[in-house]
Design brief:
The protein is of the alpha/beta class and about 450 residues long. The chain is built from 14 helices and 17 strands. The structure holds 5'-O-[(R)-(carboxyoxy)(hydroxy)phosphoryl]adenosine and zinc ion.
C-alpha cells in the first residue's frame, strides 16, 4: 500500500533521516510518500511541492527490502497522481538509478558539480503527462481516443456509419451529423471505459475542427468545447490532415525533415515537415482527391461504397491491360486524377453501348497501377529535390495494398526511412488527432471556446 506518512509513523532504523528530522521536515511542508508491506514501512520518497514543480529530495528503501521495485512503485504513484513537473537529482555514477528514471520518462536537465562531496549530481526532469481525449467527427466515423504524450494509445473507439451510408452510395451529410449527435456521448463513455480512466484523469481535450462536413464537425467540436469548459482543461484544435500525418507517430517517433504524402477521400497532398508542427505544402490535387477517384470509379463498376478497398481487392486478381491515360506527369508536385477517372467512366460506358464485356479485375489493376505509379514518382521527386530521407504516408488510401508495396520497394531502393500507419490508423480515427494534439499544444496552439469548424482549410503552421 502507498500513502503519505504522518507524525505517528516511525521511520525504519538506519534511514537517512532521524525521527526528529522527519517530524521537522513534515512541519516544514515536506511530503513523505511511503510503501507499506502490511503495516511495515519498507521504502519512502521525500519531496516538496512548489507552485508548478515537485522537487524530490531523497529516496530510501530499507536494505532488507531492496531491488523489489518499491521505490519505482512510489515514483509511478507520484507521477500518476501529480499534475506537476518533477525534478530529481541523482549521483552521476549511479547508472542503475539513472536508467530507472529514464524508463519513467525523466530527461537530463543539467549537472550540479560536486553536489555529493566529490561526486556530481545529474538533475533530471519529468514533465507532467499530457493525457488527451481526442474527438474526430469530420465525416462518417464517430471516434474518441485517449492518447498519452503524443504516442501512447490508452483507448480508442471508432464507430463507423459506413453501413448506413452504403445504401446511398456515399456519405449523406445530414445523416452523418444526426448519427454523430446520437452516438458521441456513448462513444466518449465507452472510450473512458476501455482506457480504464475517469474524466478527471484527462489533462487536455482535442478536436478535429476541419476540414470536413461542417454539420458533422460541429458535433465533435461542441462536445469538445463542453468538456473543456466543464473540466476546465485546455482545448486543442487539430487540423484533420495534421491528424492523418501524426498517425505515423503512433508507429514510431517521427524523424525530421520528412515528406508526408497524404492520400485520403478528400485530400492528395505532398507536405514537407522540418520539425514538429512545421508544415509546408509542396503540392496537392488540382481536382479529385485519390480516394474520391477510387470511389467514383468503383461506382461505375457497380461496386459498393467505399470503393477504394473494393478496387484494391479486385486489382490483385487482374492485369494492367486497358490503355488508360497517365495522370498529370509534370515538374510540379501537384496531382490530377479527374482525367484518369473520366477515361475509366468513358471506357466503361462505350463498352456497355457496344455490349462488350468489361473485365473489372483488369480495369481495377489498370486504374490502380496508374494512380500508384504517379504517386510514387512525384513523391520520390520531392524527396530528391528537398534532400529528405524520411517519408510518411497518411490517409485512408494509405491502406491500399499496391501503394504500400510500391512505396516499400521504392524506399528500399533509395535507402529512405518509410513509415505507413497500420490499417486502423489509416482511415479516420481519433487516435491520430490525439497524437497530433500533443505537438499542437507544444507549438502553443490551444484555443478558446470561440473555436469554429471549417469545411476547407490549407494545413499551415498558423
Ligand atoms: O482518410 P479517410 O478515412 O477519409 C478522409 O479523410 O477522406 O479516407 C477514406 C478514403 C475513401 O475514399 C476510401 O475509398 C479510401 O480512403 N480507401 C482506400 C482503401 N481503403 C480506404 N482506397 C484504396 N485502397 C484501399 N485499400
Ligand atoms: Zn481523413
Amino acid at each position: 500500500m502507498i500513502r503519505e506518512l504522518n507524525e505517528q509513523d516511525i521511520l525504519f532504523n538506519n534511514s537517512l533521516r532521524t525521527q526528529d528530522e522527519f517530524i521537522n521536515d513534515l512541519t516544514l511542508g515536506y511530503v513523505y510518500l511511503g510503501y507499506f508491506l502490511e503495516d511495515q514501512l519498507v521504502s519512502f520518497i521525500n519531496y516538496i511541492e512548489l507552485v508548478d514543480v515537485i522537487e524530490d529530495h531523497f529516496v530510501f528503501t530499507d536494505p532488507e527490502h531492496r531491488n523489489k521495485g518499491y521505490a519505482l512503485a512510489l515514483f509511478k504513484y507520484l507521477i500518476n497522481n501529480s499534475k506537476k513537473k518533477i525534478i530529481i537529482e541523482v549521483n552521476t555514477h549511479n547508472k542503475a538509478a539513472i536508467s530507472l528514471y529514464e524508463k519513467l520518462g525523466f530527461k537530463n536537465l543539467n549537472i550540479r558539480e560536486k553536489y555529493y562531496d566529490d561526486d556530481d549530481a545529474l538533475v533530471m526532469v519529468k514533465e507532467p503527462d499530457v493525457i488527451v481525449m481526442a474527438i474526430e467527427t469530420s465525416c462518417d466515423e464517430t471516434s474518441v481516443s485517449i492518447i498519452k504524450n503524443g504516442n501512447e494509445e490508452l483507448g480508442t473507439v471508432v464507430l463507423s456509419q459506413m453501413d448506413i451510408h452504403k445504401d446511398y452510395g456515399g456519405v449523406v451529410p445530414e445523416i452523418a451529423s444526426r448519427n454523430h449527435t446520437e452516438n458521441i456521448t456513448l462513444v466518449i463513455a465507452e472510450c473512458l471505459e476501455r482506457a480504464n480512466l475517469k474524466l478527471n484523469n484527462i489533462t487536455d481535450i482535442a478536436v478535429a475542427y476541419g476540414p470536413g462536413l461542417i454539420g458533422a464537425l460541429l458535433v465533435g467540436l461542441q462536445s469538445a468545447k463542453t468538456l473543456s469548459m466543464v473540466l476546465n482543461k485546455p482545448l486543442i484544435p487539430v487540423h484533420h490532415i495534421a491528424g492523418h500525418i501524426y498517425a505515423n507517430n503512433l508507429m514510431s517517433p517521427m524523424q525530421f525533415p520528412l515528406i508526408a504524402l497524404v492520400v485520403s477521400g478528400g485530400h492528395t497532398e505532398l507536405i514537407l515537415m522540418t520539425g514538429h508542427y512545421q508544415f509546408k505544402r509542396l503540392g496537392s490535387t488540382l481536382d479529385d482527391a485519390v480516394g474520391e477517384a477510387y470511389d467514383k470509379v468503383a461506382r461505375v463498376m457497380h461496386l459498393p461504397y467505399p470503393g477504394g478497398p473494393q478496387i484494391d481487392r479486385l486489382a490483385k486478381l487482374g492485369k494492367n491491360t486497358y490503355p488508360l491515360p497517365t495522370p498529370l506527369d509534370d515538374e510540379t508536385y501537384n496531382f490530377s486524377f479527374s482525367g484518369l477517372k473520366s477515361a475509366v467512366i468513358n471506357l466503361s460506358n462505350t463498352m456497355k453501348m457496344k455490349k462488350e464485356p468489361i473485365n473489372i479485375e483488369n480495369l481495377a489493376t489498370s486504374f490502380q497501377t496508374r494512380v500508384v505509379n504517379i504517386l510514387v514518382k512525384k513523391t520520390l521527386k520531392a524527396m530528391q529535390d528537398y534532400q529528405v530521407n524520411n517519408l510518411v504516408i497518411a490517409g485512408g488510401v494509405a491502406a491500399n495494398t499496391a501503394l504500400r508495396e510500391a512505396f516499400t520497394i521504392a524506399c528500399k531502393d533509395h535507402n529512405y526511412n518509410l513509415t505507413i500507419p497500420s490499417f486502423k490508423y489509416c482511415t479516420d480515427n481519433a487516435a491520430m488527432i490525439g497524437a497530433a494534439a500533443f505537438y499542437a499544444k507544444m507549438a502553443g496552439k490551444t484555443s478558446d471556446l470561440l473555436l469554429n469548424s471549417v469545411s476547407s482549410e490549407e494545413l499551415t503552421n498558423m
